Amino acid sequence: KAPEDVSRRQARRVLSERYQIPADSSRGSGFRHTLVDWEASLDESDSEYGHHLLELLWLYQSLDWTHPDLLRTLIGDEDHRIRAAAVRCLADWQEQLTDGFELLGGAATDGHPRVRLEAVRALVQTDSLQAAASIALALDQPTDEFLDYALWRAFRELKERWLPAVQNGEFDFEGKPEHLVY
Q1: Are 113 and 87 in contact (CB under 8 A)?
Q2: Neighbours of 99 (CB within 10 A)
Q3: What is the rounded (10 degree) CA torsion for 65, 66, 71, 72?
Q4: Which of 17, 29, 76, 126 is close enough to 131 for a disulfide, judged by CB 3.0 to 4.6 Å?
Q5: In angstroms, rounded to a whole number, what is the distance separating the alpha carbons of residues 51 and 165?
């Protein structure tokens, strides 16, 4: 909870070095309980509550431990910066979650371009036709120059997936010609 970013980063670094062990081992399990207790002790009325949860999420990520409930909570946060950071974490955890792809698809339609940018970046990693369709959903809202570039690059990286399907008439970006034109 330190106000200085460098202090929080150092604390995460020390904790992740000290507890870089499987979460289900006895030592890891004890530390995981400590983290759960710390999360429960946070005051939801605190203006920094979302940020504290995000710091906790980053600690779990640095330990390579998943916390799906915390991730889902942060993806639904009202602050777009917290949602974007959570989606970036989701990019690393998506294969470990049963609904990872669906969460990314939802983030691709978020109201803020920064969140959509993170979703596009993560969806490209799935390298599938469905990923191309989900990425195209980000076009349904205004973009900025950064998201526009990410979209341009994503469609080119996934070209081997979607272009043959379009040419064969098997895929049409869910009937949205503006997606295909892009």
Answers
A1: no
A2: 12
A3: -170
A4: 126
A5: 43
